[in-house]
Amino acid sequence: MNSPLNIAPSNPMNIAPSDKVVKTGVRDVDAVAEGLADVLSESYAVLLKTHSYHWNVEGPLFHAVHVLTEEHYTDLFAAIDVIAERIRALGRVAPMKPSDVVNMSNEHSTLEHPSALWMLEDLAKDNERLAHKLHALVELADARKDHATADLATARIAVHEKAVWMLRALAAS
After folding, report:
1. Any transmembrane segments, and where (predicted)?
2. Where are the alpha helices (H) located in 57-97, listed in sequence order?
3. pLDDT of 139
4. Sign of CA dihedral 144, 145, 146, 152
5. Quick check: 46 and 55 in contact, CB under 8 A?
6. What is the pLDDT of residues 3-38, one digit of tens each?
């Protein structure tokens, strides 16, 4: 049977991603990969909202918010790639369906036309929530002897905690 691209399944160019066994001493790879996928999904939602606010901010804080949100979404985009590659390094397939890649739950709903101050506080809350998820991932990874994931998550915690501070400091100005 041919695929939609008329490539025979036996063709070596028709290899699809699949889970692999990687023996590095990490215990319960599935749990760690699920934790990483959750952080990836949350990060993508924050990236999309941050980018949307970057496009739509208006008012006296326009330039400062525009510049800060660009820094944040650029960092998030790079981080998401690192997180997905960590999932692959653990031998698991990174999320592929849009519904798995982006968590667009009610936690991420926003006003139709928020003010710059509202945007700043909203993004601060999103970054706090992401930092909490990352703290949980550090604990999960440490318990399963996955030091690389714990280090990755620890570095991301510092980024998101700094983002919370910067967003709230700008909102207070």
Report:
1. none
2. 62-89
3. 99
4. positive
5. no
6. 555 555 566 676 777 777 778 889 999 999 999 999
Residue in the block written with tokens 């667009």: 104
**29-56 and 116-143 are packed helices; what angle lies between their axes, rounded to 10 degrees?**
170
pLDDT value at residue 1: 46
Q: Is 173 exposed, middle or buried (0-12, 13-18, 19+ CB in 10 A)?
A: exposed
Give me the amino acid identity at 171: A
Write phi, then psi, for 94 (nearest 5 degrees).
-70, 155
Q: What is the pTM of this model?
A: 0.86
> With a cut of 70, which residues of the chain have pLDDT below it?
1-12, 14, 103-110
